[in-house]
Amino acid sequence: MAAAVIALPLAGAAFLLFFGKRMSKASAYIASGAIALSFLSGLILFFRMLGEPGEERSFVMKVYDWVNVGGIHGNGELLLDPLSIVMVLVVTGVGTLIHVYSIGYMEGDPRYSRFFAYLNLFCAAMLILVLADNLLLLFVGWEGVGLCSYLLIGFWFEREVAAGAAKKAFIVNRIGDFSFLLGIFLIADEIGSLSVTEINAGAATMGTTLATVGALLLFGGATGKSAQIPLYVWLPDAMEGPTPVSALIHAATMVTAGVYVVVRFSPLFVAGGTTALTVVAWIGALTALWAALMAAFEYDIKRVLAYSTISQLGYMFIASGVAGYSIGIFHLVTHAFFKALLFLGAGAVMHALAGETDMRKMGGLRRAMPVVGLTFAAGWLAISGIFPFAGFWSKDAILAVAWEQGEYALWALGLLTAALTAFYMSRMYFRVFEGDLEVPEGIHVHDAPRTMAVALVSLGALSVVGGFFNLPGVLTLEHFLAPVLGEPEVPHGVIAWALAGAALVVAFAGIFVARALYLQPEGDARRERLEKTAPWFVGAARSKFYVDEFYGRAIVAPGKAFAGFCADIFDKRVLDGLVNGVAWVVNGVSSKGRHVQTGYVRNYAVIFLLGVVVIASFMFLRVGV
């Protein structure tokens, strides 16, 4: 059944790629059914796992023989444990709702069946990644999600900007993947195995230095997949793909892969001492704040959500860096609910407004789109960390565990980011859904169609109650993950309440500031005055702090110049010059030598006679000497 979790969407993708054109609209239901059956299989495995004692909830299943070279075994083995089953349920559960939403959203697209084939393939690749008990097989899933992101971001490749965004995502991720591959080589050489379970069991034998290097190499790959500093630049541009793709990338696949790898190989990071975990935590904290600043000044509704994802992934890395692994996974789960909801809600707005994404051209849509407005509000309050919505529980837990570990600077950065998150998400909600109705001219606004509404309502409900999955009780997420990830150290008593109160206060502060600037009548004047106090900062934030320009001048331009040198000078003048020079010499010698071959017998006789004279003279001279 564990193999079936992967095989079902994989088979759906293969079937639709070969026969999808003949299936018309049925292709959407085939793909949705395949991922739904995969989710059902995951649920059955989850409940069967609950029937086992906590310490016996880990199973390794060999599916097939693959690689056996030089004592290194790369078999097709699947690892089923609490961590992998949680990831399976997130990928297949949220993925199913996104598939259902796409039935209505992509209707009429000329490559309708191909889109659903790619969605199925995307989910299958992510499932391979999270279930693999072998680094080679994990790398197949790792590269698979990278390939699928390229195919789906550039799905509308007729648009040059979409094709460019797909290439950017693919190339930036290759940088991180090179680091990841080096980490695999180092770990396999030191441990002598590619098995995930054996690597974690033997991580302590590597020594602090090698463990640190191996962990940081894996984290280098994670910064690419999970869009952290310095490899985050591909994710905002990935918004050029269809909105369901954005939801799938940001909520259930791709970007969560980096977080999963860090958590999965937590024994390796622990074996590296404090260095590796400190790097993880600080990269996460700085990325969270950096992305939140850009989101606060962005006008594109989908790009705001993209920066938000980068920021929230930073929170997950903060949790992982302070050894709160299960809390990081808890936030991954709740984030999947409300981020998928927010993206699908944004997609419904775009669907109603003929593709418009500029928030300055929207307003008052809650009354015209009640289902979208209500569910989007649930996602807004959840990501802002308002009690009792899902984001409150997981984000508060991350801040609490950072405080408990004595990482007060990380806690302060996380708290500041929480205030910014509440601000920019409130800014989005107030601009789009509140105030007077404002839509582009000639547009008749309509609420989400039925299939889209089903997904929105389901995710809205999960965004409200999702945090309860980790409340103290018989089935608490942290306790369920404890056999794999251990129990996190969290504060208790008055400190716990005070920390939760502080998180709530900054969240409400962010909402009230946004309300004063974007909902009240004098908000425009207030914003203008604020922007005049630091126009350079506002301009920099709206220009993404010129990071793309810096990369363009420091990396892309020199790379293009070197490629031009290789093509125009080295290749043409050196390589081609060498080959052409040899050809010129041969041609010159041949053109002179061809006069010897005249075809006249008298000429050959003269040459023959001269040859005889020369040889005879040589022999007579030798005898004389």
Report on this model:
The chain is mainly alpha-helical and 625 residues long. It folds into three domains: 1-272, no CATH class; 351-542, no CATH class; 547-624. It has helices spanning 2-23, 26-50, 82-105, 112-131, 135-153, 160-191, 196-202, 208-225, 234-237, 243-251, 255-264, 266-271, 274-295, 301-321, 325-352, 365-368, 370-384, 390-404, 408-433, 450-465, 477-485, 494-518, 523-533, 535-542, 547-593, 601-624; strands spanning 59-69, 72-80. Helix 13 (274-295) runs antiparallel to helix 14 and helix 14 (301-321) runs antiparallel to helix 15. The model has no long low-confidence stretch (mean pLDDT 90).
Keywords:
mainly alpha; two-stranded antiparallel sheet; 2 strands; 625 residues
What count of domains describes the coordinates? 3
What proportion of the residues form beta strands (DSSP E)? under 5%
- Give the helix proportion (percent range): over 70%
What kind of sheet is the major sheet?
2 strands, antiparallel
The gross shape turns out to be globular
Average pLDDT number: 90
Number of strands: 2
Order of helices and strands: HHEEHHHHHHHHHHHHHHHHHHHHHHHH
- Unreliably modeled segments: none
The N- to C-terminal Cα distance equals 97 Å
Structural class: mainly alpha
The radius of gyration computed from the alpha-carbon positions, rounded to a whole number of angstroms, is 31 Å
What's the arrangement of strands in the largest beta sheet?
1-2
Compact summary:
This protein has 625 residues and is mainly α. Helices cover 75% and strands 3% of the residues.
